[in-house]
Amino acid sequence: MTILSRLTLPALALALCSTALVAAARADDAANAMKPVANAMKPVTDAMATNSMKPAADAMKPAADAMKPATDAMKPAN
Fold first, then answer.
1. Gap between the Cα atoms of 42 and 48, Å rounded
2. What angle do CA 67, 72, 73 make, to 5 degrees?
3. What share of the chain is helix, strand, coil (3-state, %, to 5)?
4. Which of 33, 35, 12, 15 is nearest to 23 (CA)?
5. What distance lies between CA 4 and its chain's CA centroid?
6. Count of alpha carbons within 13 angstroms of residue 76, beta-carbon side
7. How many angstroms separate the CA atoms of 37 and 77, rounded?
8. Closest among 5, 10, 13 to 21, alpha carbons compared
9. pLDDT tens for each residue of the chain, 78 residues long
């Protein structure tokens, strides 16, 4: 092993570790910066999820009820 490789490997390891730490810190900063936006959007997304899907769920209920005897017949007997 040459002197150059003995110096290069620790330097490379240090560079990789420091890069990972900086990347993690930046990811945390980005996540923290997005929290107010996500919190502001939460009531809107909750309302959309419940209110906008309700008519579709209600419309599918008769079809699901009609299929119930067939699904019950496919269940294994105990």
1. 10
2. 100
3. 90, 0, 10
4. 15
5. 44
6. 1
7. 52
8. 13
9. 565 556 676 777 777 777 776 777 677 777 777 788 778 878 877 776 667 777 878 888 888 888 888 888 888 876
